[in-house]
Amino acid sequence: MSYTNTTTATTTSFASLHAVPASDPSLSKSLDAMIPRNLQTHFLANEQSEGAGARVRRSIGTPKLKNFSPFLMLDHFRVAKGAGFPDHPHRGQETITYMLKGKTDHEDFAGHKGTLEEGDLQFMTAGRGIVHAEMPRHELDPATGDYPPVEGMQLWVDLPKNLKQCEPRYRDLKSGEIPSVSMDEGRVGVKIISGMANGTESLRELAYTPVWLLDVNIRPGGTFKQQLPSGFNAFAYVIKGSVQVTGTANDTHVPTHHNAVFEQAGDGVVIGNDPDADEAAQLILVAGLPLDQKIVQYGPFVLNSPEEVYQAIADYQGYTNGFERAANWESEIGRRMVR
Asked: What confidence tens digit (pLDDT) does each residue in 252-305 have?
């Protein structure tokens, strides 16, 4: 993906907190010595409408799992031709978009634009306010004559209270920049998007709030063992296949499109794929530092009090306090949807 001035166009910058703690008792243990976390719950991410004609499977941000700090929302989107996410605002959170299949275009009211390719990610800090569009780019498959749907994940992460009014910024991460490791005699492959696995660290300063994000592929008979920072909230979302989660209390079967939420107690997770499985399993393992603050959310506005939410709505509607450039702005990629 290529963005125009996305990392240098803002006037205020801040260093991200390092996602890998300098000293952590759980991370210092070997994989064989660590105590696995138990599952707190797991549930199916039901499909629902979102944006303009798009369909998503939402697990975080629903009555089953709401405000799992620092996580606000998790969508597994699969968007058919003619649908997308046209112009919309944000304030007070960060979004992480991960492309699994296909491409998506991005454009905002500050003139930043670009394309996320398959395997790429975008880390966006909305801060005090941004208006943008995210529109899947559907391309003809010559073999079938169809336009395959575009698929990906989007995670919303809360911002610390003192950074809710920071200037927006982007960090883009290309697929080729993501380190990967092989484990369990080649039966497990891990893309280290953020965090650490098998002694290999990701690139730094992607999201401000410390977040681990690993894309894990487990072949039949493989077992994935992973330490996690102490006190981090963690979950695993199964994209393909099914897995077996092993804790100190029991083993739990977790099917496709289920979100498996872990307890905080323990040093890490143990996740396997049945030796008789018909296919490899794919999941994302995500962990993040909980923020000790109140969450008040109204759609794309995530603040710490009702008054701040009312102000965000007024600022957006009145084009003030961060939304000045939204006046009379309309994205080009959003316009092409109605042509």
From this structure: 999 999 999 999 999 999 999 999 999 999 999 999 999 999 999 999 999 999
**Whole-structure pTM value:** 0.91
Dist. CA 231–CA 138, nearest whole Å:
41
Q: How distant is the alpha carbon of residue 171 from its chain centre?
A: 13
Can you say whether residue 182 is alpha, beta or left, with left for phi > 0 and alpha for psi between -120 and 50 degrees? Answer: beta
Instruction: Report the alpha-carbon distance of residue 208 to residue 95 in Å, rounded.
Output: 11
DSSP-derived secondary structure for 302-315: EESSHHHHHHHHHH
* Cβ neighbours of residue 130 closer than 8 Å, sequence gap 6 or more: 89, 90, 91, 108, 109, 110, 124, 168, 322
- Kindly state the tokens that stand for 246: 């092993």
Distance of CA 323 to the CA centre of its chain: 25
Question: For 242-251, what is each residue's pLDDT tens digit?
Answer: 999 999 888 9
The answer to whether 127 touches 177, Cβ cutoff 8 Å, is: no
Neighbours of 164 (CB within 10 A): 20
Residue 75 and residue 45 in contact, taking contact as beta carbons nearer than 8 Å: no
CB distance 117 to 85 below 8 Å: no
CA angle at 321 for the pair 211 and 70, rounded to the nearest 5°: 15
